[in-house]
Design a protein that fits this description.
This protein is α+β, with helices and mostly antiparallel strands and 622 residues long. The protein has 2 domains: 2-372, Chondroitin AC/alginate lyase (Glycosyltransferase, Alpha/alpha barrel); 383-621, Distorted Sandwich (Beta-galactosidase, Chain A, domain 5). Helix content is 36%, strand content 21%. The chain is built from 18 helices and 21 strands. It has helices spanning 2-6, 10-13, 29-32, 37-48, 60-69, 73-96, 102-113, 145-168, 170-190, 208-223, 227-247, 265-278, 289-300, 322-332, 335-347, 358-365, 368-372, 590-596; strands spanning 302-304, 307-308, 383-386, 391-395, 404-409, 412-413, 425-429, 432-435, 466-468, 476-480, 482-488, 492-498, 509-519, 525-538, 541-547, 551-555, 558-562, 568-572, 578-586, 599-607, 611-621. It has an 8-stranded antiparallel beta sheet with strand order 11-12-13-14-21-18-17-16, with no helix packed on it. The chain has a 5-stranded antiparallel beta sheet with strand order 3-4-5-7-8, with no helix packed on it. It has a 4-stranded antiparallel beta sheet with strand order 9-15-20-19, with no helix packed on it. A hairpin with a 2-residue loop joins strand 1 and strand 2. Helix 8 (145-168) runs antiparallel to helix 9 and helix 8 packs parallel to helix 10 (208-223).
Length: 622
Amino acid sequence: MFVERYANDISRLITPYENYNPYPKVENREIWDLIPSSIQKHWISKGETHLGFSWPAITAVDYMQYSRNGNVVRFQNKYEERRIALASLVLAECMEGAGRFTDQIMNGIWTICEESSWVIPAHMVISKASSSDCIPNISDQYIDLFASETASLMSTTHYLLQKPLDAVSPNICSRIRMEMKRRIFDPYLERNDLWWMGLQTNRKMNNWNPWINSNSLSAFLLLESSDERRYRAIEKVMRTLDRYIGDCSTDGGCDEGPVYWDRAGGALFDSLELLYEASQGKINLYNEPLIKEIGRYLYRVHIDDTNFVNFADSSAKFEIAADIAYRYGSRIGDRQLVRLASSAYQTNKPPLSRWLTLHRMIPSFFLDDKIMGEKETPPFVRDAWLNSIEVMTAREQEGSSRGLYLAVKGGNNDESHNHNDIGHFLVYSDGSPFLIDIGVETYTAKTFSSQRYEIWTMQSAYHNIPLVNGIQQQAGSAFKASEVSYRNEDELAKLSMNIAGAYPQEAGLGSWKRTFNFHRNEEAYIEIVDDFELSQETDAIQLNLITPCMPQIENTGTILLRNAAGEQLWIDYDGSQLIACFEEITLIDEKLQAVWGDFLYRITLKAKFPVNASVWTMRISR
């Protein structure tokens, strides 16, 4: 897409280095003073908290914790502390412009430049030369997500503060340029073997591609003074982004889950915007249907407030990058995305992020008054069908989170950040969770290893799907839904699929057709029909349901779910064929506790007697 249209004209389209001034430098006080005082005060305060910051040492043993015990926290806490401190100090200095933060900024620059590697231990496997104990070999320079974020931070810091830093010592900015050349610029231009570039592999691209490319592109535009090298880098960015865009679902769906949209679709927007601005609008893909669909995904999986449909490794509750979503929606002319973003921005200002990516934050400072002036509510779209990733969402009524909400997933078990979850579904009521996707625990070495599916949250037994003969769904592209059919009318949203193919042969499934009927008449309810045939009779069949509400088994055929606010949901099932019980799941992971508290519950509806074929119907209502 990019290469075909623009690659041959880059030197003509892109603003030369000497004329490229995307943001005001610190000395342009009249422009920085236009930023609302609330934002200025916020970042000056953040900077002040780091005036006495003691830059933590990163030791060899810190690197080795990942290989020794899978711990990612010890290293990354120190690594990220340094970068958050530097970014906060840089923004504080730009807001105030009095030189009060300069010494600590120099300390931060020097400390980060002294690091043996900007790549984190968990990503050392990309290296050709780094040892298995995660001690980096500095002769092998390559780029991961974290190195690219550091590159963006260092290049933006250099761009904004070069004049006052040079006044203290030219060696500070000189050191930045030297480290950027050997750690980022040369590897980016010279290497084609990094998998996320997609230039020597057929592997499907994920968020690594736009995330690293957007940060690398920003760094080249801001810091590479050789226009010939800038143009080469931009051409390569275009080639690698084309690989990502080519792998995107035509429906714009993010199979990694909405929490990853920020650094998947959102990072693609960063790249689109950087190229658009650097070419003064001549490089422009915002009218492309696929680019619009990628932006729209975010509101199609929005439930209410900070609740989102969290298939894959996504969290059920998180704050979106509202400023990025607003800018994206504005560029593609989509009011629904603008509404979601402006609504989120009102309650999350300034937007919070684990990453203080300066090249995407600074433009948003100058849009604050405009976004705050929107005073919008989320669109609460009634229906969405993402046919490529096979995700359905439906609610009772357009424009409101009141009533029942249903989300269903088909697809396959080889998606990015995959869980074994074909035929899985969520049910919310008035925006509150009742039947859920647990999400994922804090990442460890095991999460992205061959042992991934030993982790309970990845297994089909802990999703809202059947367990047959004690056999769970399996991972791999061959394990998928078939016969998928979607229908949408005013009073009925319907999705059916055969999920038998998600199980290995030993489960003994001939067919398992699962149908979801969302009836939106006066008495709304959700009906789930499991119509199955097995190779032989068995009573080892159970339907699993995960809920944050302690279940009350009222009588044969009825379960009551009531949350802490007193809101309730009824589950009716065929008590003549199934018997209900439940177990308490104690959560010990801090990431899951932050979303669900200390406990979850797994309801099981078990077969009362052996069958080789049957039709089971479950009804969920308020």
